[in-house]
Write a structure and sequence with these properties.
This protein is mainly α and 294 residues long. Helix content is 79%, strand content 0%.
C-alpha cells in the first residue's frame, strides 16, 4: 500500500526516506572504514562493531530503496519472489543483529569480569567463530520463517498494508487456519529470543556486580561507560521491534502500524553509528586523525 495517495506527501516521504538512508549509509560506512584502517581500533569490540555496521547497511538497504523507488514511480507492486526475498533478508539481518548483540554483551562481560583472561577468551579465532555463528543463526532464522509464511494459501486481494513485505501483514492475507505453522515458528523463536535475552541480562548482572566492587567512583563510571553504547543500542533494537510488532498484532489503524514499522526499520540502523561515535573517545580520535591528515 505504501504511503497516502497525495503526490506531494509521497514526494516528501521519499525525500525523508532517502535522506535517512544516506545518513545511515554514510555513518555505518564511516565506522567500517575507521575500524579497518586505524590500528588502535583492531580490538574485538570494534571488530564486532564493524560487523554490526555492515548488518545495519544491509538491513536498511532491503526495504528503503525499493520503497523510495515505488513512491517516485507510483508503482506499488512487488513480485511474489521479491516479497519472499524481502521477508527472508529482513529476518536474516534482524536475527544476525540480535545474535551479534548477544555476542557483544559477552565481550563486555569478558572484558570487565575476566580482564586477565580477556585476550585468551576473545582471541581472533574465537571472534571470527562468533561472528560466523551469528550470521549462520540469522540465515536459519530467516529460512524457517519464510518457509512457514509462504507455505500458507493467500485468500482475497493481495494487498500488503505496509511499505515492505513483513510477516504480520502477510499473515492477515492468509486463508483461515493456514497460519498455524508460522504461529508455531513464532512461538518457538520468541522462546529462543527470551532465553538469549536472559543470558544478556545475566551478563550485565555480573558486570554490574563487578563494577560495584571497584573502590573509586571515577573507576566505576569509566568502566561502566564502556557498556553504555551497547546498552543503548540493545534498548533501541528491542523497544522499536517490540512496539512495531505489538502494533501489528493489535487492531490499530494501518497508518499507525505503518508509522511504527518505519521507526523499527529506520531508527536502529540510523542511530547506531551516532550512539557508538558520540560516546566513544577512540572513534573521535580516529576520525580526527583522518581530518588532520586531510
Amino acid at each position: 500500500m505504501g504511503f497516502p495517495d497525495d503526490q506531494v506527501l509521497q514526494r516528501l516521504y521519499a525525500a525523508f526516506f532517502s535522506l535517512v538512508y544516506l545518513v545511515a549509509l554514510m555513518g555505518n560506512l564511516l565506522i567500517i572504514i575507521l575500524t579497518t584502517i586505524d590500528h588502535h581500533l583492531q580490538t574485538p569490540m570494534y571488530f564486532f562493531l564493524k560487523n554490526l555496521s555492515l548488518i545495519d547497511i544491509c538491513y536498511i538497504s532491503v526495504t528503503v530503496p525499493k520503497s523510495v523507488m515505488n513512491t517516485l514511480t507510483y508503482n506499488h507492486s512487488i513480485s511474489f519472489v521479491g516479497c519472499a526475498s524481502q521477508v527472508f533478508l529482513v529476518l536474516v539481518f534482524a536475527g544476525t543483529e540480535f545474535a551479534l548483540l548477544l555476542v557483544m554483551s559477552y565481550d563486555r562481560y569478558a572484558a570487565i569480569c575476566c580482564p586477565l583472561h580477556y585476550e585468551a577468551i576473545m582471541n581472533r579465532g574465537a571472534c571470527a567463530q562468533m561472528v560466523t555463528a551469528s550470521w549462520f543463526s540469522g540465515c536459519i532464522y530467516g529460512s524457517i520463517h519464510v518457509a512457514g509464511t509462504f507455505s500458507v494459501h493467500f485468500c482475497g486481494p493481495n494487498i500488503v498494508h505496509q511499505f515492505f513485505c513483513d510477516i504480520p501483514s502477510l499473515l492477515t492475507l492468509a486463508c483461515s487456519g493456514d497460519q498455524i505453522l508460522e504461529y508455531v515458528f513464532i512461538i518457538i523463536s520468541c522462546c529462543f529470543v527470551f532465553i538469549c535475552f536472559t543470558f544478556m541480562v545475566a551478563s550485565y548482572g555480573y558486570i554490574v556486580s563487578t563494577v560495584l566492587r571497584i573502590n573509586s567512583s571515577k573507576g566505576r563510571f569509566k568502566t561502566f561507560s564502556t557498556c553504555m553504547p551497547h546498552i543503548t543500542v540493545v534498548t533501541l533494537f528491542f523497544s522499536s521491534g517490540f512496539i512495531a510488532y505489538l502494533g501489528s498484532a493489535s487492531k490499530s489503524s494501518s497508518s499507525m502500524n505503518l508509522f511504527m514499522s518505519v521507526l523499527y526499520s529506520l531508527l536502529p540502523p540510523s542511530l547506531n553509528p551516532v550512539i557508538y561515535s558520540l560516546r566513544n573517545r577512540d572513534m573521535k580520535v580516529a576520525l580526527g586523525k583522518i581530518f588532520d591528515e586531510k
